[in-house]
Specification:
Order of helices and strands: HHHHHHHHHHHHH
Helix content: over 70%
Structural class: mainly alpha
């Protein structure tokens, strides 16, 4: 796939729908919360169930993917801590930097991008990546966002078990093991698939709405997290993919692509919840992180187009 083809086939569809969401938020008073709830509680679980129930991926690939997701988060946290410490970041801002670097937007950006770039296996791999990452976000991510406090944030760890996504994955795996999955062409599976397919445009609309609501007044402070996310993250993802030795080359490529997606939104919600509005060098941790999300999302357009083209041409997986 050429660079032009990568942009046209994988990036442009995402960008087009996200721009619609951005304009919608600018021109109307749309409330993103109900739409986000619809995605989290209905559409994404349906997508996850259908993807896992019908996937051809084996357990070995899923296990390697789990090790990769956790390993990536730990490595990026360590790198961000070291770079941030040497750059003079401390306290809540250092925590925000680690969150921006360690947790990619594997859902709202990663799932549509992986599907457009690598088809059905791409979508399934991205769904699994998101599920595993959620477990890490609501444990290690909560710990970082709270500055290591061991009081209130313990309740947030249970939040992951209140999201239907986890139970959709468990149900799909259990039904596969018991050979209870209906045929793909059955009315039940086609209905679930139809609902799941609706999650892709809805996620992109939410992304655009969130971008429109981001305060970018401190954009100059986002250079460090943007560098880590757009330059270091793909290298770390590639290194892990090669070290893990995925049997399916497409899974390896999607793993690298997921690692390279921009900073995720969920850590921002955790930072708002568990970080006091302490101003450090003229900026609070939520402002720092929200700006990083905006900058990495915009700047990733070119980076991801190049990466998709390079991954399609790669023969070393």
């Amino acid at each position: 796939m050429s660079l032009t083809g990568a942009f046209t086939n994988a990036i442009l569809p995402i960008l087009s729908v996200a721009v619609v969401g951005y304009l919608l938020a600018r021109l109307t008073e749309i409330d993103v919360d109900p739409v986000n709830t619809l995605g989290l509680y209905v559409l994404i679980p349906a997508l996850a169930f259908h993807s896992i129930a019908t996937t051809t991926l084996g357990g070995g690939e899923v296990a390697k993917l789990g090790v990769g997701v956790v390993g990536y988060a730990l490595l990026m946290i360590a790198i961000a801590w070291g770079v941030g410490y040497l750059s003079g970041e401390s306290g809540p801002l250092l925590g925000a930097l680690m969150l921006a670097a360690a947790f990619p937007n594997s859902g709202f950006v990663g799932i549509p991008l992986s599907e457009f770039a690598f088809g059905e296996i791409g979508r399934t791999t991205a769904v699994l990546y998101l599920t595993i990452q959620n477990l890490v976000v609501y444990t290690l991510g909560v710990y970082i966002a709270s500055g290591g406090s061991d009081s209130r944030p313990l309740d947030a760890v249970l939040e992951v078990f209140r999201l239907p996504l986890i139970y959709a994955i468990v149900a799909a795996v259990a039904m596969r093991m018991l050979n209870l999955v209906p045929p793909p062409e059955s009315a039940a599976m086609e209905t679930v698939g139809l609902v799941g397919d609706a999650s892709v445009p809805v996620m992109l609309l939410i992304l655009g709405i969130q971008m429109a609501e981001t305060d970018v007044s401190a954009i100059s402070r986002s250079i460090l997290p943007s560098t880590l996310k757009l330059v270091v993250a793909p290298v770390v993802g590639l290194s892990l993919a090669l070290a893990l030795g995925f049997n399916n080359p497409t899974v390896a490529k999607v793993f690298v692509l997921e690692c390279a997606t921009p900073a995720a939104v969920i850590p921002l919600a955790l930072t708002i919840e568990y970080t006091d509005d302490v101003v450090v060098d003229g900026i609070t941790a939520p402002e720092y992180l929200s700006t990083a999300i905006f900058t990495t999302t915009v700047a990733s357009i070119g980076v991801l187009a190049v990466l998709v083209a390079a991954l399609h041409a790669a023969t070393f997986f």
